[in-house]
Amino acid sequence: MKNIYIFCLMTLIISTNIYAEDLTDIQITAPELSSQDLTNQAIEDINTKNAIDGGDLLRSINGISTIRRGGHGLDPVVRGQSDQRLNSFLDGAVVYGACSSKMDPASTYVNIENYDSISVIKGSQSVLYGPGGPGGVVRYERITEPLTQYTKDSNTKSQPYKLKIGQTFDSNAEAKTTIGDFTLGLGQAYFRVNASYSEAGNYETGTGLKPLTEYETSNYSTILGKRLDDGSKLEFSYTDNSQENIGFAGLAMDIVYSYTDIYNLKYHRVTPLGPFSSMKVELFNSDMDHLMDNYKMRNVNTMRTPAASDTYGGRIIGATDRGMKIGVDYEHNTRDAEQNMVISGTERHLAYLWPGAEISKLGFFIEKDNKMSDLTTMSYGLRFDRVETDATRAAVDPGTAHMAQVTANSLYTAHYAGTVTAGKRDFNNFSGFLRFKKDYGPMSSAYISLSRNERTPDATELFNAKTSMAMGGKYRLRHIGNPNINSEVHTTLELGFENMIMGSHVNGSLYLNDVSDYITTYRASDGTYDNTVNDARIYKNVDATIWGYELTVKKDLTSNVKTIFNINYTHGDDDTQNRPLAQIMPLSGDISLEYQTSSVNYGLRANFADTQDRFDSRVLDSGRTGGYTVYDLYAGFEPTPNIRFTMGISNLTDKRYATHLNSSNSLDATADRVDEPGRSFWGSLIYDF
């Protein structure tokens, strides 16, 4: 069936000879931000916190928090949903991490200096961007265009090149990043190459602790593109992302290396083709080679886990003059991971963490914005996905292990009722949304939307097979997937508005997400962790409810001074077991005061969170989390049009704190969680030719 899907996709691509640049009705634009809870911003405009990766950058957007497990690889959470419940795209490519403990979500592979913009759709407000993703869609994008433009009447042309170089630093952890970005225009063709290198030691918390958080990353990308005579555009890109010596105080292992290659081919057509006014075709491939261990960067024992994650696929989206988008997408992911132990210099194979996990997804979708009047728009979308899953090595004996030999299937059977084996499964998922929007003026509107989103379990939820040695009748750290787990079904009602109230621009949203068969982890004993075989972490379906709100208030105090207030709240319940859902942030937000001119900006921001006493330590929560308020100072200067200098102080009072979502600190018993960094002085200098 996989080959049939690939053939169908390639046939569509070849037979239609399509692609689309300037699919304006597909792209997210700024005027629609508040009414549909969308954001699309230049990265340099929101990076006032010296973000270290794509996940860290997302914390600048109201309603988005992160899970911190180390100094790098922050895992974004949108409305209480993370990782497998978000659809992330790196310049159109889908990237699945190679760690079953989620040390490398897709945002990890975003060196923000190499990307130009970020777009976020919260919740199920579109069907254009892949299957599942009930938490939302995140797109990191590069925007490259020809630099040399010839007119018909003369040979005049614009500057044929752009060059940007820069350096950033952070006093805490002695972190630094070197940046280079060069674009060359050749008529209607262009060539762009950018690169960055970052390194950091262990940062220091507010009380002087130094958790294992060091990292070293590099990123290189090449883009070749050409604007065709009809205005269409053809583009190929290659990205090389390397990560080495990444410390994770919140996990049992660290990254020795992670090498990722990403290939993208895009063809955008802006002229009509059959019933379509424009079309877009994208193909991608991402290959990841990943090695983790627990002895190179720490003195624990000798566990070693080589892993790989390979993904390929593509999408076609056609747009009509009447605001309809019709498309098909496909992706196939294979993940392998081994659990090994090094004994007296000999590597012993214990188990397959991902026993040849394969998931393929073929989706068909339609979405339309229908103008019912000059002020009223009805939008709707429907999507069908055929998902096939398999674990090709679930029955394979890993060979001679220490103390015992186990297959993935034997672990499934031992931890779930009956005989449980991983075989091929098919899922037929239906998703869709309906939204009514009413405009009342230039900055006044309201909307109501109802959506259904069906998500197939991911490779870890289905097939994880992390075993352990038996030591005195006890077992350590078993983490077992459930091949029989059901898909989640999210039904979400959302209300939103924007308006001018007492001279302030106010926008907000309120959402209620009713989830059938929500996938959660729990301990088999459902008790306190006691290191016995009954305390393996396993999966089951429950019914759940997630609701919350987001509010942003912007006020111009003078022509140069403004204040922004953001606040958000998420509440999650496990209705089946009458427990709070784990990994839910408490009430949080920020308030800032900023002075801005064309060449200078100064800002003071207070970031705050309430106490979180709704938790479930039997799942992933470490326990109760105290509230906090921390302060940031930041400033930016442009002494010339080519030079920009930014600087700031994060955590001005050097407060020790951790967000509720941060992982427990596996290396320091005095710290409940991996604490956030203490006071740091940071800055960047960018020279743009």
Brief synopsis:
By secondary structure, the protein is mostly beta strands.
Protein model, in words:
The chain is 6% helix and 52% strand. It has one domain (2-688): TonB-dependent receptor, beta-barrel domain (Maltoporin, Chain A), CATH 2.40.170. It is mainly beta and 689 residues long. The protein has helices spanning 2-16, 33-36, 43-46, 54-58, 408-415, 459-463; strands at 38-42, 64-67, 75-78, 81-82, 86-90, 117-122, 136-141, 161-170, 175-186, 189-200, 215-227, 233-246, 254-269, 278-293, 303-319, 324-343, 346-371, 376-391, 425-441, 444-455, 465-466, 479-480, 488-501, 504-523, 537-556, 561-574, 579-580, 588-596, 600-609, 628-640, 643-650, 680-688. The termini are far apart. The protein has a 22-stranded antiparallel beta barrel.
Secondary-structure topology with pairs:
Elements lengths: L1 H15 L16 H4 L1 E5 H4 L7 H5 L5 E4 L7 E4 L2 E2 L3 E5 L26 E6 L13 E6 L19 E10 L4 E12 L2 E12 L14 E13 L5 E14 L7 E16 L8 E16 L9 E17 L4 E20 L2 E26 L4 E16 L16 H8 L9 E17 L2 E12 L3 H5 L1 E2 L12 E2 L7 E14 L2 E20 L13 E20 L4 E14 L4 E2 L7 E9 L3 E10 L18 E13 L2 E8 L29 E9 L1
Parallel strand pairs: 5-7
Antiparallel strand pairs: 1-6, 2-3, 3-4, 6-7, 8-9, 8-32, 9-10, 10-11, 11-12, 12-13, 13-14, 14-15, 15-16, 16-17, 17-18, 18-19, 19-20, 20-23, 21-22, 23-24, 24-25, 25-26, 26-27, 26-28, 28-29, 29-30, 30-31, 31-32
